[in-house]
Amino acid sequence: MYIGVDCGTQSTKVVVLDAERGRLLAEASRPHHLCEGDDGRREQAPAEWIEALRGAFHEAVARAGIDPRAIRGIGVSGQQHGMVALDERDDPVHPAKLWCDTETAAHNAALIERLGGEAGCLDELGLVLQTGYTASKLAWLRETRPDAYRRITCLLLPHDYLNFWLTGERTTEAGDASGTGYFDTLRRIWNRDVFATIAPELDPDRVLPRLIDSREPAGVVRPDVARELGLGQGVLVSSGGGDNMMGAIGTGNIRPGLVTLSLGTSGTVCAYSREPLASGDPLVANFCSSNGGWLPLVCTMNVTSATTRMRELFGLDLAAFGDCIERAPIGAGGVTALPFFNGERVPMLPEASASFLGMTSLNTRRENLCRAVMEGATLGLRYGLERMGAIADGASQIRLIGGGARSEAWRRMVADATGTQVVCPQITEAAALGAALQALWCHRSAEGEAASLEAICSRLVSLDERSLVDPEPERVEAYDDVYRRYRRALADRHGIQA
Fold this sequence. Notes:
Structural class: alpha/beta
Number of helices: 19
Helix content: 25-40%
Shape: globular
Number of strands: 25
Radius of gyration: 22 Å
């Protein structure tokens, strides 16, 4: 038995995997509270993640009907980029600033300039700093909370922090470290010069976690935590990784030719590559994967978070919202939405707000507004997909995950808007599943077996053929027109040219 944990923005999920029978036995989740501010602040208390992990673990194990002593490994997936800065007592010096925090936009812009602009960032890091990365959060803390900054003895990412609670070891791996903004994604090492630019008073050898290979264990579960969870001795904790890296593993996206697209709170598009991406596009994050290669990735900040706002605005449940989408035509009757409620990362508009264009007395209807937001979120992901170039152009299939993937209308929209076949994995909690699969891979490697992650994924990642959608040529053509309108709106409203 193996446990997969996914600590996301809204909740922590736990799944129980029976590796021998090749099936998921149970899952459970616990919510988190998000602290928001009009200035772009998005923060959480790391203690909530631990409490959520505890509750979800006990519920999932109870639902699975297993003895927790049968568990052999645990893998942790975490929301990327969050800053968990600890003091000498291992307490956070400040609430964790999250991936979606845009309060640090000015600090990010200043760091890019200090590193020599986009070209300097690409040379030093293999990618261009984004506001969501950890680097600008650390710079913000140094400037605005100097007392807290001076207390820092350790800097971790959310998944690192949960691994630390489980094992007492401060480790990280290349996939999640890629999004810190002080990790060289080409050479897979901490960039100490960049770190010194951000935090000159901090010693990287003391405050940064130890880098380990993705198939290495972070450690074993501490005895007191093992007793609390009812585990046996020596339960291995794998390296874990960022939610995008674990989601790629959980969808079998560990070889070229596939794209994983997530319709979650945010949206992500990623594709596996054996080599780092050479395009130099500042909007494409040249992240490392958590299985030895690279995972070029584009992230948009407004997907189900945007549709949820519209649904709640009109007082609709999910079924009623779906009916609205179906009743509105492709193109939402001429309404175009740029649903940048939380600012946006791709395109790089961290301080943007949402816009609705083309509204008239005839088309301003609830159905059109709801569909326009879903189309805007989807076309934003198409925009990101196009920025990835050949690595995405050659993809034969998009594997769709996230809460939005449960919507038949949204699956069809993605297929038609991208002109690519879409299918969902049978297990939709892809990041949690990926973490469990990585734990299995790590455990078997530690036991001396010739374990292949590709073989593990081939056996344990199954696709839901009922969800498969092929693009329809007439609808693809219609979405091409809608996409051109979307691009004109980006140009007119924000100066984003083709």
